[in-house]
User: Fold these one by one.
Assistant:
Number 1:
Amino acid sequence: MGDFLLVTGGAGYIGSHTVVNLLERGSQVIVLDNLCNSNDAVFDRIDSITHSQAVFVKGDIRDRDCLAKIFSTYPIDSVIHFAGLKAVGESSQIPLDYYQNNVYGTLVLCEAMAAAGVKKLIFSSSATVYGEDAPVPYEETMPRGKTSNPYGTSKAMVEQILTDLCASDPEWSVALLRYFNPIGAHPSGLIGEDPKGIPNNLMPFISQVAVGKRKELSIFGNDYPTSDGTCERDYLHVMDLADGHVSALSALDEKGAHIYNLGTGKGLSVLEMVESFKRVTGVDVPYSFADRREGDLPAFWADASKAEKELDWSATRTLDEMMEDTWRWQSNNPNGYDG
Ligand code: NAD
Ligand code: WQD
């Protein structure tokens, strides 16, 4: 298609998988990433998969000069904005960093876009904006709820800012994509999730136990009011999530702010995830039950019908593919991009 896209945070987990899809559909991709939570080795891997290259600019979304230079150098049509900090627990320790990166960073980006006359944006939001009290399944028509940490609040704030921006200027079109729980990796095993330090999220923890980097998984709580007492989440394959961004690009032809849930529409428990991983890979994952983790909700999943109806998108990869692809990435790259 030959359109020019700026992808902030394109070296990260979801961004890198999306860049693969964008290059494969023929887009020209400029990645802006400060590598605070990623590794530039990802770009050689992306080249190997796609046989084409993204332009990589190492820089920060808060750097106005850097953004101005990008917009004056390349005829950017749209921006996909992944860049930000995402560790829920850490956000309560260093909230100012989270608001600086996620909220102020988005303001600087939007100002640079407006100055360049680029008014099409896809934003990485999160199911967390539904808050603590929303009934399941989550529907886009529900109001944003009470968030329980600065990370979630930063996502809700940015959603509001972008909604106000669209109301103020009818030239803007924005897709607010609310991701549920992305897992898995590209089926090549060349790119995947590479968390720094001890993983916060379930799937990287399971795969690091399986590969021998960690002794056992702690399952946070087995007394929730769910089928087996462990929490339920809507896990979707990261390649389906990447496809969702390509589908959402078409929605940017319509002006205004549009919200879409990107999930499968189905909840799975922590124990179901552990058992599936073992069944699919044949590798044991020792675990024990631990106390509930503060802030965890018992169960939530998406109503994914709006994206299906309006974007012609639905999650198609199976749970087995999520497990196989996670394991191919982890076992081929026990230390992530460091080898
Ligand atoms: P990630 O940390 O792997 O990717 C984010 C990328 O942004 C990293 O490469 C990081 O180096 C870069 N970055 C951070 N701050 C930056 C800045 N100020 N300037 C330039 N680059 C910067 O995270 P991810 O899992 O790929 O998530 C991508 C986006 O999706 C984030 O906004 C995240 O909050 C959101 N999200 C993620 C999940 C999830 O479960 N992974 C769920 C919902 C929403
Ligand atoms: C999943 C389940 C844990 C680790 C987080 C953010 C959310 C979104 C996605 C960005 C829970 C349990 C986990 C472990 C465990 N991110 N678990 N042992 O908490 O649903 O969502 O990531 O927007 O905002 O909150 O995902 O993968 O951390 O946890 O038992 O070592 O696995 O209790 O039930 P979560 P997760």
Number 2:
Amino acid sequence: MKLLLSVLSRTHRSAVGSKHFRSLSLSPLRGHALVVGSSPELVQRLGAQVEVRTSFITEEEEGVFLQELDPGLKKKRYEFDHWDDAIHGYRETERARWGSACEEVLNRVRFAAFPQDSQLLGPVHVLDLDKTGFIKPHIDSVKFCGTTIAGLSLLSDSIMRLVKEDAPGEWLDLLLPRRSLYILRDEARFNFTHEILKEEDSEFNGLKVPRQRRISVICRNLPDSERTEPEL
Ligand code: OGA
Ligand code: MN
């Protein structure tokens, strides 16, 4: 059962963009960002809405997440065979309660990514991609998820590609190193598809980025319409 898919009902689009030119420009605002894009202007403009924080968790913390998640994940099989799925070669789960070490890390994620008054989607989404797994271009459901998506990457480096939905020539590639946190906000989240590249396409600025099994731990906030306003 694809429980998260039923919650998120991702709309995936085939964003086959023509790449006219590549230009390396590390985001000038954030020392840690590893972002290249179709133009320096786009990298600059979207810079505030796209963050990659390297070494957001330690090796030890990664180990604790794995210990907590692996037994449950291993009971599931990777799903490969649904050609129309947004994700290929994956198993997933969601988790509302965590051991204290993971909870402490998740609080760091929440503090780093979301405005103080944000209401978060209760359960955290855990996506386990096989080495050959990948995520096709899609935009997370605007009905169920709000302005911000924040994800920890465990076990593998990977490339996340953002492509402007109505202008496929405009794109950004994010290098997501193992143990980093990425954050997508606002325009980057609503007007750009995002995807995780498959092993054979996994290149950053001409450099091969080998893929291994990758587990992402993803926090999202709720859309404003889902907020429960206090009664007057
Ligand atoms: C998703 C998604 C990205 C990731 O599940 O909707 O885009 O980092 N995941 O796994
Ligand atoms: Mn997504």
